[in-house]
Q: What sequence folds into this?
């Protein structure tokens, strides 16, 4: 019998991502389609449980990057900062806030092809404004801005927590170097979890925070005050109708800043800025008559980030001598995909190019080696795909139905909204054959605008062939999304075979 979801708990002020994610273990029984080896013990791990652990540990892109980096470091990857010298051999992970770039070299030639898996760490949500304090008719509210293409109605009438990062005035120290730290904040206490590598930003401390208790709620208008909703549908204005309430009374300027300071145990003047966002507090859960479905927040695109991380760890344990054609497995998890990828930590960032070229130079390569390596490299851009919606089958291209449990979907678009072409699709099909994984093919309906991925962005910045693919899901960009449990493990298997 499945255990019912437990209510959200106050976060332990010193809880690690492992401990927070471990709460998911109490909510999910073992009905997975297969087993993966644990990163340290080697014991079998249910893939869906492992994905849910990562989701639970990752309410924001910063926490997602923390969790992926932790998993890679646990598997033996050498953690470096963007400005560090890079080793010429061995597994390496470099993170810059919401961006993670990792690879594994074990004696491959400097000009060996890069075989890249790319995904993203961000998801649509509501983000706290710089001056958020407001009140209307006796309700205290927090000003927010919609991030990305969120399904606005899905954020109504939900208990919401807050997560992200806060920039604090750093304590004065002899070397002037602040550390990035993580805090998990409860209702009545605050504290610092694990500390990370020094971040060379003098006088500023970036603290990763999460409040896993119901702080906010966006209340829907009662039907008695909106009689047209049944005929005209719900009409939401991003500016007017999505401001959450979080108390009663009157808000004064600086109140939210003072609240953060109290939660973190610092002076109000030491709270310099923040990047904070809402997250749904409902935990991941299996559902359906036979527990065949997984409902969870941020499946787009933490499912792909999980699969890429799992595949890279598996690839790092291989002996390159066993490969007929040595390749260098690479993982790129970028932030800001939902808003166009053009940022210092997005897929369009020059930092990604510098790190990949730097890894080749560290292995003894020169400009010519970089050219040779990139000329034969390929990227799998992994982002969730639209399953055919049972209530709206007419919204899909009829010749390309996507079924739950049917395997990852290759994504093709003639207008380059997806970067797949005949050559890269062929290589993806060969990888699927090696993995024993079935593939589907997604093509967007011609009279509807097609979304995009980091695929075209990476193809343009690196000049490398890209195939776009992803696991199918429903309710994309909802606060809570839906996929088949049977589609979780095949995605990781496909990406593991991609690294061959």
A:
């Amino acid at each position: 019998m499945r255990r019912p979801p437990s209510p959200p708990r106050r976060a332990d002020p010193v809880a690690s991502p492992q401990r927070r994610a471990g709460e998911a273990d109490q909510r999910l029984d073992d009905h997975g389609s297969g087993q993966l080896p644990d990163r340290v013990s080697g014991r079998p791990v249910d893939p869906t449980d492992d994905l849910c652990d990562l989701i639970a540990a990752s309410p924001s892109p910063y926490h997602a990057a923390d969790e992926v980096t932790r998993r890679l470091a646990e598997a033996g990857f050498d953690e470096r900062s963007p400005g560090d010298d890079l080793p010429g051999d061995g597994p390496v992970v470099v993170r810059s806030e919401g961006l993670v770039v990792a690879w594994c070299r074990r004696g491959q030639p400097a000009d060996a092809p890069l075989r890249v898996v790319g995904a993203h760490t961000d998801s649509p949500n509501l983000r706290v404004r710089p001056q958020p304090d407001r009140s209307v008719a006796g309700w205290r509210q927090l000003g927010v801005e919609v991030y990305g293409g969120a399904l606005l109605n899905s954020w109504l009438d939900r208990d919401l927590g807050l997560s992200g990062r806060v920039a604090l005035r750093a304590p004065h120290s002899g070397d002037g170097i602040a550390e990035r730290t993580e805090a998990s904040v409860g209702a009545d206490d605050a504290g610092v979890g694990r500390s990370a590598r020094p971040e060379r930003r003098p006088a500023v401390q970036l603290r990763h925070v999460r409040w896993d208790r119901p702080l906010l709620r966006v209340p829907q208008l009662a039907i008695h005050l909106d009689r047209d909703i049944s005929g005209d549908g719900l009409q939401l204005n991003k500016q007017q109708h999505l401001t959450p309430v979080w108390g009663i009374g009157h808000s004064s300027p600086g109140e939210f800043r003072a609240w953060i300071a109290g939660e973190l145990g610092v002076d109000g003047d030491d709270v310099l800025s923040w990047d904070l966002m809402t997250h749904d507090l409902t935990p991941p859960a299996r559902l359906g008559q036979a527990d065949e479905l997984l409902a969870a927040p941020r499946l787009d695109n933490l499912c792909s980030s999980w699969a890429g991380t799992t595949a890279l760890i598996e690839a790092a344990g291989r002996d390159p001598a066993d490969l007929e054609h040595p390749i260098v497995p690479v993982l790129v998890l970028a932030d800001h995909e939902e808003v166009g990828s053009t940022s210092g930590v997005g897929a369009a960032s020059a930092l990604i190019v510098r790190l990949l070229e730097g890894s080749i130079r560290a292995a003894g390569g020169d400009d010519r080696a970089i050219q040779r390596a990139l000329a034969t490299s390929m990227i799998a851009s992994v982002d969730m795909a639209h399953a055919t919606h049972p209530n709206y089958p007419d919204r899909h291209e009829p010749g390309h139905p996507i079924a739950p449990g049917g395997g990852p979907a290759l994504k093709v678009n003639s207008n380059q909204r997806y970067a797949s072409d005949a050559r890269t699709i062929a290589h993806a099909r060969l990888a699927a054959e090696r993995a024993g994984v079935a593939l589907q093919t997604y093509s967007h309906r011609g009279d509807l605008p097609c979304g995009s991925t980091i695929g075209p962005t990476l193809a343009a910045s690196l000049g490398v062939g890209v195939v776009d693919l992803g696991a199918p899901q429903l309710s994309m960009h909802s606060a809570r999304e839906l996929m088949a449990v049977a589609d979780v493990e095949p995605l990781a298997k496909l990406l593991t075979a991609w690294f061959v």
